[in-house]
TrEMBL record:
Cofactor: pyridoxal 5'-phosphate
KW Metal-binding (keyword) present: no
Species annotation: Phreatobacter cathodiphilus
Assigned protein family: Belongs to the class-III pyridoxal-phosphate-dependent aminotransferase family.
Keyword flag Signal: no
Molecular function terms, GO-annotated: adenosylmethionine-8-amino-7-oxononanoate transaminase activity; pyridoxal phosphate binding
Full protein name: Aspartate aminotransferase family protein
Key words, A-Z: Aminotransferase, Pyridoxal phosphate, Transferase
GO term, biological process aspect, one: biotin biosynthetic process
Entries under PROSITE patterns matching the protein: AA_TRANSFER_CLASS_3 (PS00600)
Top-level taxonomy: Bacteria, Pseudomonadati, Pseudomonadota, Alphaproteobacteria, Hyphomicrobiales
C-alpha cells in the first residue's frame, strides 16, 4: 500500500525509538490523532482498542478531563520550580507522602525522576553511593536477570537482559550481571516441578554471588512479573527463595514496579502479589497513567542515612535531574493516585482479572498457542510451531510482527515480544470491552494460523 503524505514526512524526519528501521520504511507508521477511554483513533478516524495501554502505562485510559484540568491549573499556578539545593513545592511533598503511605515496604524518602530508565539508573547510583558511604567500596556489582527489562540508558540498558538492547551498543557495562530467567515453560527441565525450578533459579543466583564473591555483590533487581521480556510470571515460591539468598549475602533488593505498580497485577504493587519484599522500589508509567512523564525511586531509611553520612564528608549529593519532581508532573501523579483510590480502580481491576485471565487461558487451546500466561490485567500468548515440543518459529518468519499487523487490521493494538503477543489494556476497560478485545485476539490468531499454514511454518 502506498504511504500517505504524513507517513512519508514521518519517515523523512523522525528516528523512531525501538523500531526496526529497515522494515518501517516499507510498512510506514500508524499515525494516531486522538483517543478516548480505551480507544485510540488514527488520522482516518479508524478506532483501535489500545490493548497495550500505550506502553503498559495508560491505566486510566484516554481523555481524562480531571487529569487535564489538574495539569492546566498547576501550569497556571506554578509551572516550574525544582527541588535542588533547598527548594521544594507542595505537589512534590504531597506526592512523596502519598507514595510512602501506599508503599508495600517501609520507605523513608522518594527521589523523583521522569522515566523508568532514570529510576533504575538512579537505583544503581544510589546503591554505589550507599556502599561508598558505608565504607565498602568493593561491594558494587548488580545482579539482574536474563530477559529483564529495566530501561535503555547506559546503566539501565545494562540491567536489561535482552540482546537487542546490548548488541551494537557495547553493553552491558562491567559490574552488571544476569542470572537465570524464571520462565518455567521455556527453561523448566523435563520432569522438574515448578517448585524445583524455582529452587534451581535461586541456586543459580547463589552460585553467581559465590563465584563473584559476596563482598563484591551489592544488589539484585527484578520486575515482579517481567514485562517486555515476554510477560513472564515466576513460578510459585520463586521470590521467597530469591530473597533468602539475597539476605544471606547482604544483597540489597530492588523491585522494578514500572509496569506492575498501581494495580496492573490486582494490587497497588506487584511485589505484594508475588510475595517479594524489596528494600527499594522503582515506579513510573501508571504513576501518572502516562499523562505526564514521571517516575520515582523509593528508598529505605538505611540508604537515606548513607546520603547524610556522605554529604557530611563530600558536600552535595550530586545527583538529580532538572525535572526531578516537576510540579505539573507531581500534581498529575497525585491526582492519578487520588482517582485510583476514590474510584476504587485497583479493586475493580482485580475484580475483572478472572474474566481477563479466563479469556487468555481459553486461547491456550488455539493451535498456535504454546503458553497462555498472565496475572491481573496483563498477559501474553506465546505462539509456537509445534505445541508438544514447544518448538519456536524461526525468528526470520516474523510471525509475531505479522500477528501484530493483523490485529491492527482487526482494530486492536497489541505488541509482539518475539512470538509472544502481549495484552495489557487500560485498567478502566469494561467487562464488555474485555470480551470484544479477546474476540479480536482470537480472529488475529486464526488469521495468523492461516498464514503459518500457507507458508508451511507448522
Ligand atoms: N522498567 C520496566 C519494567 C519497564 O517496563 C520499562 C519500560 N517499558 C522501563 C523500566 C523503562 O522505562 P522508560 O521507558 O520510561 O525509561
Amino acid at each position: 500500500m502506498a504511504l500517505t503524505n504524513l507517513q512519508v514526512r514521518d519517515l523523512e524526519t523522525v528516528l523512531h525509538p525501538y523500531t526496526n528501521q529497515a522494515t518501517i520504511r516499507d510498512t510506514g507508521t500508524l499515525v494516531l490523532e486522538r483517543a478516548k477511554g480505551i480507544y485510540v483513533y488514527d488520522v482516518d478516524g479508524k478506532p483501535y482498542i489500545e490493548g497495550m495501554a500505550g506502553l503498559w502505562c495508560t491505566a486510566l485510559g484516554y481523555g481524562n478531563e480531571e487529569l487535564a484540568e489538574t495539569a492546566y491549573e498547576q501550569m497556571k499556578k506554578l509551572s516550574f520550580t525544582h527541588l535542588f539545593g533547598g527548594k521544594s513545592h507542595d505537589p512534590a511533598i504531597e506526592l512523596a507522602e502519598k507514595l510512602k503511605e501506599k508503599a508495600p515496604v517501609p520507605i523513608s524518602k522518594v527521589f523523583f525522576v521522569c522515566s523508568g530508565s532514570e529510576a533504575n539508573d538512579s537505583q544503581i547510583k544510589m546503591v554505589w553511593y550507599m556502599n561508598n558511604a558505608l565504607g565498602r567500596p568493593q561491594k558494587k556489582k548488580i545482579i539482574s536477570r536474563l530477559r529483564a527489562y529495566h530501561g535503555v540508558t547506559i546503566a539501565s540498558a545494562s540491567l536489561t537482559g535482552l540482546p537487542a538492547n546490548h548488541t551494537d551498543f557495547d553493553l552491558p557495562i562491567s559490574g552488571i550481571l544476569h542470572t537465570s530467567c524464571p520462565h518455567y515453560y521455556r527453561f523448566g527441565l523435563e520432569g522438574e516441578t515448578e517448585e524445583e525450578f524455582a529452587s534451581r533459579c535461586a541456586q543459580d543466583l547463589e552460585d553467581m554471588i559465590l563465584r563473584e564473591g559476596p563482598d563484591t555483590v551489592a544488589a539484585f533487581i527484578a520486575e515482579p512479573v517481567m514485562g517486555a521480556g515476554g510477560v513472564i510470571v515466576p513460578p510459585k515460591g520463586y521470590f521467597e527463595k530469591i530473597m533468602a539468598v539475597c539476605r544471606r549475602y547482604d544483597v540489597y533488593m530492588i523491585a522494578d514496579e514500572v509496569i506492575c505498580g498501581f494495580g496492573r497485577l490486582g494490587e497497588w504493587f506487584g511485589s505484594s502479589v508475588l510475595g517479594y519484599k524489596p528494600d527499594a522500589i522503582s515506579v513510573a508509567k501508571a504513576l501518572t497513567s502516562a499523562y505526564m512523564p514521571v517516575g520515582a525511586v523509593m528508598i529505605p531509611e538505611e540508604m537515606y542515612q548513607a546520603t547524610i553520612i556522605e554529604s557530611k564528608k563530600t558536600g552535595t549529593f550530586g545527583h538529580g535531574f532538572t525535572y526531578s519532581g516537576h510540579p505539573v508532573g507531581a500534581a498529575v501523579a497525585l491526582k492519578t493516585l487520588e482517582i485510583y483510590e476514590r474510584d476504587r480502580i485497583i479493586e475493580k481491576a482485580a475484580a475483572k482479572a478472572p474474566q481477563f485471565q479466563a479469556h487468555l487461558q481459553a486461547l491456550a487451546d488455539h493451535p498456535l498457542v504454546g503458553e497462555a500466561r498472565g496475572v491481573g490485567l496483563v498477559g501474553a500468548l506465546e505462539m509456537v510451531a509445534h505445541k508438544p515440543t514447544k518448538k519456536a518459529f524461526e525468528a526470520k518468519a516474523g510471525l509475531g510482527a505479522y500477528a501484530t499487523a493483523i490485529a491492527q487490521e482487526e482494530g486492536l493494538i497489541i505488541r509482539n515480544l518475539g512470538d509472544s503477543l502481549a495484552i495489557c489494556p487500560p485498567l478502566i476497560i469494561t467487562p464488555e470491552e474485555i470480551d470484544d478485545l479477546f474476540d479480536r485476539v482470537a480472529r488475529t490468531l486464526d488469521r495468523t494460523l492461516d498464514k503459518a499454514k500457507a507458508e508451511g511454518l507448522l
